[in-house]
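_Per-residue structure_
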Amino acid sequence: MFRAEHAPATIDAARANSRWHRDREEPTGVVGPGALAATASLVAMWPFTSVIAPGGWSLTVLVVILAVVGTGTLVRNLLRRRAAWIGDLATLSAQILVSVAVLTLLVAGDTALFGILPTSTTLTLFGALGAVAWEAVVFGSAPLDPSPALAAVMGAGFAVVAILLDHLLAHRSAVLATLLTGAIGAVPMIITLGDTNVVWFVLFGLLALLIFRYTARRHPESPRRSSTSLAVTVGAAALAATVIVTPLLPVTASLNGNGVGVTVDASLRLGDDLRQPNPVEVLTVAAKGETAPYLRLTTLSRFDGRVWQPDRGDLQSQADGFGAPEWGEDIATEEQNTSIRVLRMSSSWLPVPYPATEVQGLTGSWRVSPENRTLFSRSADAVGNDYTVTSSRLIPTLEQIRAIDAAAPIVDPEAEPVELPGIIAELATDVTAAASTDYDRLVALQNWFRSQFAYSLETPVEEGFDGTGAEAVAQFLEERSGYCVHFAGAFALMAESLGMQVRIVVGYLPGSMTEEKRGSESVFSVTSDQLHSWPEVRFPGVGWVPFEPTASLGVPTAFRAGVTQNGGPGSPSAPAPTTAPQAEETSGPEVDRGEAGNESTGGGELRRLDPMPVLFTAIGIVVLLLLPALIRLVERRNRLGRARRGDPAAAWAELRDTLIDLQLPVSDADTPRVRAAGLVRESGADASALRQLTDAVEQANYARAGEASADLAAPLREVLVQLRHSVDRPTRVRAAVLPRSLYAPRAAEPGLAV
């Protein structure tokens, strides 16, 4: 009779007591999903650092990611006793609110209430920033300059990514989480079609392995050994595939002008590149002053009647320099520094100003050609390089250059003589008949081309002389219309017919000044349609002097007269009268910079390594390492608050997790009273304090509903302090920094028996 009457109560008590044991509940993780979501978000963000220059945007994204996953972990931990849909909805809502508040604080805090509550002004500002970011992405070129607009857009975008990854991993959706991370991270490489980031693919493969192993290890319906083996196998296969397959992907093609815009070879076949319908930015130049220098890739000095052949001199390491100067000590020079960033130009040559004397920022695969002061590599590509070149701007006076005869052509005895059409020599003689010096003859040729010819990309194609051979030059001289290749080729052959040593340069015109600044330097943008060629003539004691015969392009060559009363013939003075059709006189295609050179000191200002990405990464690592300790601290405070209100479930759950953190023995077979006795005996815990806790637990299980316990926070704190003192210092540190209770499978906290 007694047993029958009390059977329901006994069963309810047994069920309530079973809630104290972890092995009766489905194992779930608390920190694992959040930590994996943060890691996956950062892995997805990394490739974007190659298309957006370092700046505040990366800190914004990092803070937003950590705020999102931290909020998710905290809310999910506090609501783990609630129904799953309630916890998910509350977590999602909290993450959205926190991400909005954090993003507002970082980007538009001055327009918000308390810096975090958006106002109408805040929303208007975010709309304007979104429009600016869209314009920068659509019309800009990688790497984009960091800006508040990009910080806002990237922060909002990765807030969404972090929320999705956090919820996918919390629900063990390993495949979807891995696909999302890979898709987001691959976007920059797909759009720009730049070099394959093999390191990122390896890191992504390791992340996939970790995600699959984590979700498989915690799946309650599969044997642990078989799940882990399957996860390791799949992850290893994915990692092997990324390492083997990704280097073979065709990532050097051009897509909508966003990939490699121009491929420059050692020839004068520039017409196709110049006729591109949509020119793209191929490189940027940072230099002092309002104009940038011409940049050369290579030179061509051997002509066989059909084509000009590139110069192939000996190559030497960068440490050996660019060779001895070709100019004498009486020639005034001005040192200058030019920083060059190649964005979308594929070539075995690097663009450099002339005459280059030193280069910094390149790998050893780039070699120096002293013959023409260029940089060449048999294995590397120009695209993606960022370097600084020191060069000497030559400033001979007009008297000096007129007093020197141009060097005679070098005749190769083994080469077959080239017979040129008669019109070339005839026109050269007629145009220069009034000049008395070689320099004046060359200036007369330059002025004749610039004043009597027209620039056209279509005429050579329509008339059938779009080439560099002698016959094409003759037809160009008759049509008097063409582009830089024809002007340079005709000038070179005419100058050679006058007995001068000449060569043709392939390179780029000075770019257009932008509003961007790098320190005291202005930044110039060079586009694909500024690919150019021009002739040079060698003057002994001065070196190779460039000329600009192409009509309507570039800056024609003219030198200034010198005066002796201000320090000798090498001192430049006021411009002398010249027949060159120009508004500003220069020493060659490189535009005169006035007094800009006086601002340089020593080797000039070189680009410095931006420490911000390294700093942000270090901060992110520190925050991730401290995140478990922070979550555990918040959890402990929450439980102590509930214990103060007489909640024995919270008090006993904190005691159990502390034992796990301190690596003290915990057995699910022990009742609370047996466990308390063991702690008194083995760890020296206070018996009376533990008795208060065990009495409260037993009362919660067997007493009538509604009877509350007294304040349990004080005895709980006393027991926790004694347990910490019972272990050594390293164990206490590990328990605080990396609490094991957050990673171990966790049961729901017990409630009162009904």
